[in-house]
Amino acid sequence: xxxxxxxxxxxxxxxxxxxxxxxxxxxxxxxxxxxxxxxxxxxxxxxxxxxxxxxxxxxxxxxxxxxxxxxxxxxxxxxxxxxxxxxxxxxxxxxxxxxxxxxxxxxxxxxxxxxxxxxxxxxxxxxxxxxxxxxxxxxxxxxxxxxxxxxxxxxxxxxxxxxxxxxxxxxxxxxxxxxxxxxxxxxxxxxxxxxxxxxxxxxxxxxxxxxxxxxxxxxxxxxxxxxxxxxxxxxxxxxxxxxxxxxxxxxxxxxxxxxxxxxxxxxxxxxxxxxxxxxxxxxxxxxxxxxxxx
Length: 294
Prior knowledge:
Serine Threonine Protein Phosphatase 5, Tetratricopeptide repeat, repeat, 3-stranded antiparallel sheet, mainly alpha, single chain, 13 helices
């Protein structure tokens, strides 16, 4: 029984066998993208990026994997999206070869900077993404081509001296700085603030990044960094209620038992629900619950 070429390619990648992969692709030059429709439509390059395999990723690119266009899976993730959470070296390679896709957003509205900002051990990737991303209003506009949002309708102002990626938001209006704060990535918080991220930016729920600080110490550190840089941007509110996120991944729902409030994370977005809101009879979207007293 003959094994399908796509399966053989994926197996060679999983085995990290570059010699075998080269032989398979040499004999099947038109099938090497090998999309796996049982795994969200991930291609061979998606798999190499997800596994952090630099040599294999470079070989696939040099062989023309993306010559027909940037690969996207069922969640609109490019290989760079996956690498931004797994491998700095592969992500840097993909960002260098295909800088136009750095600001592209997946189905949840997250770009590569947001994904890298929330990932441990990858804070040094952030300056690379910022330096390689195409400038605003270029022909490679900093938006996913599938997006219906125009630059003029962005939820927050984008001053000319601030990199547009720092102001880019996901579907819930959260910036990369919101995610770095929520996931407790203090090095990423520092790198983003140093690059000019606005610490006072508010998401769709009107919460600032510091409101999602993972711990008291993280909040103190965040406020100290903002003070050191002169408090640029919209002011960071004092005494804000702070939720605690337990490093949840996209789509997870977590609730801290400290009594200060809880954080809900839906489809990659962040939402802090305070105990005060609960006592006032408000639901997670800020609307009054049915049956609650006025």
